[in-house]
Write a structure and sequence with these properties.
This protein is mainly β and 373 residues long. The chain contains 2 helices and 23 strands.
């Protein structure tokens, strides 16, 4: 068995052996502006224009809480009651409820890329990452703390603080193509060499309806998700994770035009991840382009559909067009790389959507599936 210690910066996200953990809601202890001890003004405002039992969310000093609208004390006005709380305000048992309701959004258009929070904060602990290659498996362990600067968390779009994680992922040592594609929805895509996971999707859906498939794209400015300049933010369990190009990590690894990208990470199916630059069929180094584009025309409306013009606000706004760019539908291709001179299937991070791949060509490890404790 070979063993190496990757000393590049480490960031991490939820998924795999550690599952996402929702923050236990606190009883609404703030007093409303009227001083009579009712729900806080933020909870009342969260249900403005909504109906009883609609999903809602609002910010508190403990972070953002999600729940449903109700009429406190039988009064006519509605307020947002956090999930896992009874009508008397007492916390329910941990096992009595499912995941908290999704936030209810009605935004249908965006005007550009997400506004990023400057990366000004030093890491809260030393970066620890190990990579052990055995005959059958590659074992990847990390504490989830980046060595590079991050944005300030909490921030206006993300109420969570970065915390150390305990990651123990296993991917195939000799991955193989299955001949099909498998969606990465429901699990993180992979892990960077610095211990951060790539988790491109957002748990935000039009009108809070996951079943509609209208998932908001975090790299657009339709919703403020508090991404920093590494296109990353923090899960409720304190896990820092990448949604797009990890800018400062790429700087540290000296990713640059004219040179093949160094290894950036490993996908859950065991294939390597590179960024931007690779070797074309002619052997020349070039920047690879994705084969996705924004669909022309307008979205369907009614029956839970948002309507409006396709503009990249939702992941369903994009379509794959074979041959449009250099990469397949999973943002990958067969290529020779410095680490695999004989050639391998490999994924690439790109400037264009999806940036981080959204599907696999191999068999992903179940370690990367999100589970709740």
């Amino acid at each position: 068995m070979t063993k190496s210690r990757m000393m590049t910066p480490a960031l991490v996200c939820a998924g795999g052996a550690l599952a996402l953990v929702t923050v236990a809601p606190h009883v609404m202890a703030q007093r409303s502006d009227n001083g009579r001890g009712g729900p806080p003004a933020e909870a009342v405002h969260a249900c403005s224009g909504l109906q009883t039992n609609d999903t809602c969310s609002f910010a508190t000093p403990h972070g953002e809480l999600s729940g449903s609208c109700f009429a406190p004390g039988g009064r006519g006005g509605l307020a947002c009651r956090p999930a896992r709380h009874s009508a008397q305000g007492r916390p329910r048992s941990r096992g009595s409820g499912g995941p908290p309701p999704l936030r209810r959004h009605t935004v249908t258009q965006s005007s550009g890329a997400a506004v990023l929070v400057p990366a000004t904060e030093q890491p809260i602990a030393q970066n620890i990452v190990t990579d052990e290659l055995g005959q059958r498996w590659r074992e990847l362990r990390a504490n989830g703390i980046a060595a590079h600067l991050t944005g300030q968390f909490p921030n206006s779009g993300n109420p969570h603080r970065i915390e150390e994680q305990r990651y123990d992922y296993r991917v195939p040592a000799a991955p193989s193509l299955t001949g099909t594609t498998q969606s990465a929805l429901g699990q993180v895509f992979g892990i960077a060499v610095n211990g951060v996971v790539f988790d491109p999707g957002a748990n935000e859906f039009y009108r809070g309806d996951r079943g509609s498939g209208w998932q908001y794209e975090p790299l657009r400015n339709a919703l403020d998700m508090g991404l920093d300049e590494n296109h990353a933010h923090v899960q409720p369990n304190g896990a820092y994770h990448y949604h797009g190009l990890p800018s400062l990590l790429l700087d540290e690894l000296e990713v640059r035009a004219g040179a093949h990208s160094p290894l950036i990470g490993w996908a859950a199916d065991g294939f390597p991840i590179y960024a931007l630059y690779g070797s074309g069929n002619d052997g020349e180094i070039r920047e690879f382009a994705s084969s996705y584009r924004v669909k022309p025309g307008t979205r369907p409306s009614g029956d839970g559909n948002p309507g409006g013009t396709y503009d990249g606000t939702f992941t369903k706004d994009y379509e794959y067009v074979a041959g449009l760019g250099d990469l397949d539908e999973c943002n990958g291709r067969w290529a020779k790389t410095p680490d695999f001179p004989a050639g391998t299937y490999t994924y690439f991070l790109t400037r264009q959507w999806p940036v981080v791949p959204r599907c696999y060509k191999g068999s992903p490890s179940s370690d990367f599936v999100r589970r709740r404790r």
